[in-house]
Amino acid sequence: MRGIGWTKAGAVSGAVLGALLVTGCEKAAPAGAPDASASASAQAKSPTGSAAPAGAFGKEQAAADVTAATGAAGLDQPKESVTTAPSPVDPATATATDKRRAELLACTAPWQSMERMPDPGKAYEATVEALQQRGWKAGERLRHDMLTQTVLTKQGWTVLARRYDFSAGKGSGMGMPDMLSFMATEQACEGRFTDAEMEDLLKDEPQE
Asked: How confident is the model over 90-101, as pLDDT tens digits?
């Protein structure tokens, strides 16, 4: 996994993280989704996941909200900002996968941590609350096995807020630490990638 917006992943492989990160993305999208006119407006502003016009709500603003919310919850921040643009793709040498990966990264802002913390559940809930205070509307809430997921939406963007309780309720000091993930995705971008493709693109991204 690339280092954009990610903290230490421990013993979990990049393939597993990619699968966990994107699983359920398509199913979650309808919750809190904008109406047709809002979707059209969002697509017009950023048809290819490019930077939003001045004054518009885009990747930098969504990522800044996630960074502020996780910081307010006391979570350590990644060394590299989630607003960092993907490396330019050389058309002469880029593969089709390289081009698709660049397109995906242009309209997503991943934030993830597997750092040990005293109370990951409390940190997760505090981040979700802080996002709501910054104008994100909470929609579908899901609890299933080790996964807690909250879908939040704002101005054409969706944040999938997820906590994976790898310790099975035994506490952060037992076994693998919990994973907290707050991935912002432009709604106009979501329809251009299937879950399987997103998984492959994130999994196969070269290490830096």
From this structure: 777 888 888 888
